[in-house]
């Protein structure tokens, strides 16, 4: 896998989308990650926000589901996925946390199936900007794995429907990912 592509994808995931206002300091993924970080679950922590933590999990799960859309998520894909998510979070989430989250997501996918997991992701998203970010994150990680397959595109479209977004939002997310690839 092209290392420079992975760096570009991680940087785009950490930064605001191209359509965000100029004042946006980072991506929703990066901001939610600060609430999911390694010390966030400490009882005395003032940074823990359960809603933000659930949003972080939904953002990661959306990309995880797209990566699994074709039924094949091998060890190399998992390693790339972990690396990109960790880099995008700016080290606010520990590697062990990402690995544990992915293991949980694998179990949930096996138990519930793809369609149910898509519905569960949508339930964790409260605002339209968060819904657009879910699609952007999923599209960027789909492109990082060698382009968007028909199965991945179908899953992005299902996510958009469950999130209450139109098909133009999928096109927008894919355009954002293509901008990243253009370098």
CATH top level label: Mainly Alpha
The CATH topology corresponds to TerB-like
**Tally of helical segments:** 9
The CATH level-2 architecture is identified as Orthogonal Bundle
Q: Could you tell me the strand content as a percent range?
A: under 5%
Low-confidence spans:
none
Largest sheet: none
Q: Which structural class do the helices and strands define?
A: mainly alpha
If you average the pLDDT, what whole number results?
Answer: 82
Shape: globular
Task: Tell me what you see in this structure.
The model has no long low-confidence stretch (mean pLDDT 82). The longest helix is centred in the N-terminal third of the chain and has 18 residues, at 50-67. The protein has helices spanning 3-14, 28-36, 50-67, 75-88, 95-112, 114-123, 128-144, 150-162, 167-182. It is globular and about 40 Å long. It has 183 residues and is mostly helical. The chain has one domain (3-182): TerB-like, CATH 1.10.3680. It starts with a helix and ends with a helix. Helix 3 packs antiparallel against helix 6 (114-123).
């Amino acid at each position: 896998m092209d290392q420079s592509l992975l760096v570009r994808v991680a940087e785009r995931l950490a930064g605001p989308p191209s359509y965000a206002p100029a004042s946006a300091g980072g991506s929703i993924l990066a901001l939610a990650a600060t609430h999911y970080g390694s010390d966030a679950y400490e009882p005395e922590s003032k940074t823990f926000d359960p809603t933000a933590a659930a949003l972080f999990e939904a953002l990661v799960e959306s990309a995880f589901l797209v990566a699994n859309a074709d039924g094949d998520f091998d060890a190399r894909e998992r390693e790339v996925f972990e690396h990109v998510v960790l880099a995008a979070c700016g080290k606010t989430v520990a590697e062990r946390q990402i690995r544990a989250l992915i293991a949980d997501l694998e179990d949930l996918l096996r138990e519930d199936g793809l369609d149910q997991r898509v519905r569960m992701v949508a339930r964790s998203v409260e605002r339209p900007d968060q819904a657009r970010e879910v699609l952007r994150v999923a599209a960027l990680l789909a492109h990082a794995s060698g382009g968007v397959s028909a199965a991945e595109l179908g899953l992005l479209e299902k996510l958009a429907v469950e999130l209450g977004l139109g098909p133009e939002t999928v096109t927008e997310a894919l355009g954002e990912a293509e901008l990243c690839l253009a370098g």
